[in-house]
Amino acid sequence: MMRQLRWICLCGVLGLPVATFPRITKAEVAASSQFQGESRSTSEQRGGIFSLRGPKGEDFTKAPELEFPFVAGLSARIAWSDLEPQQGQHNWRLLEQARETAASHKKLLMLRVTAGMLSPGWVYKLEGVGTVTFTKDDVSWVKPGDTISMPVPWAEGYLKAWESFLTALGQKIHDWPELCCVQMTGGGFIGELHLPKTSEATMKQWNEAGASEEKVNAMWQRIITVYDKNMPAQVGISLNLAMPLPGYKTGTVVREWALSKYPGRVWFQQNGLTGGPAVGPYSKILREASATTTVGYQMGGTGAAGRIQWPRAFQRAIEDRCSYLEVFEVDVSDPKRKDDLVFLAKGLKEINESKAKQKR
Fold first, then answer.
1. 79 in any annotated domain
2. Cα–Cα distance, 205 to 170 (Å, whole number)
3. End-to-end CA distance of the chain
4. What tens digit of pLDDT does each residue of 56-110 get?
5. DSSP code, position 66
6. Residue 356 maps to a domain
């Protein structure tokens, strides 16, 4: 049960209380067989429901929810600080655990190594790498009184260190058949384009660090180029769309640039699906992008937060022609969600099959 309490969302990063649900039973696994989707994922089926785990200190050796036929794969979030605790010294244990667990269940693997606030401590000691701190005034899940730090992401020393890590990561995973997607991070404070930006104190820090829209756009284009160069050619590299700082059109500029330069290679997703209006313009953006590349969503929190309108959220993902959806493990494991998840899995399967036929 403790496994379900740890790191199911960014609230878990900071130890906020979350609800838990019963473990999956063999009877529930058997009952789920009414879904006639593929329980064994193949290289041609790169979408579906991904059970979202991580990002720090996760034990990936066990993921019983992968027994469900309607679950296509494991989405593993891992902190950069766990994989490179000392500069140039890599510990791939968590990465290998995630791969072995996906492979043992004959499921796909989606990988996200998060930099930003989960960067290793040695990064802050590099020449020219400044620090920005933020609090609950900027991000709602930060505990009152806590202060979170991240490196200035466009600092040259930081970018070179991140590029060096991505090179090593690409060499490590270059021949993993289970791998279908690598999520791109490095320019935000977690796994998206987002930067903390609500309080005057934090915005003052960004301004003092030389923030500009041109600088942020160029930074993300550089990061995407490095991902394309180093990640396996057969997998997608996904960009999580958001507005970095107030008024910045980085999401539009970088998305259009990536669609032109890396058609089909760069995927797009949005990490706030609730079924409510929070997705904003991204529903239309993803729907339009789905005509030329792969798109998806991540749920905007867990069911414990009380914000998720489950059937409506899943229907939106299907209407937006999404190929995949990341759902937090605690919700995948919740028996109350099974019918909704089966409905979602069928819809995603039909979308992926339709896209596969169009490519033939």
1. yes
2. 33
3. 45
4. 778 899 999 999 999 999 999 999 999 999 999 999 999 999 999 999 999 999 9
5. G
6. no
* Domain membership flag for residue 284: no
For residue 332, give the nearest of 284, 297, 299, 358 by alpha carbon: 299
In contact, 76 and 53? CB cutoff 8 Å = yes
pLDDT digits 0-9 by tens, 292-327:
999 999 999 998 878 899 999 999 999 999 999 999
Could you tell me the maximum CA-CA distance found in the chain, to the nearest angstrom? 58
Residue 260 has a CB neighbour count (10 Å cut-off) of: 8
Q: Please check whether residue 332 lies inside any domain of the structure.
A: no
Phi first, then psi, for residue 157 (nearest 5°) are: -65, -40
Whose tokens are 């997705």? That residue is: 279
Average pLDDT of the segment spanning 267-294: 91
Q: What is the pLDDT of residues 231-248, one digit of tens each?
A: 999 999 999 999 999 999
Q: What's the pTM?
A: 0.88
Q: Say how many domains are in the chain.
A: 1
Q: What range does the domain containing 187 cover?
A: 2-265
**Spatial distance between the Cα atoms of 73 and 147, rounded to a whole number of angstroms:** 34
Distance, CA of 322 to CA of 316 (rounded, Å)? 9
For residue 130, the domain's CATH number is 3.20.20
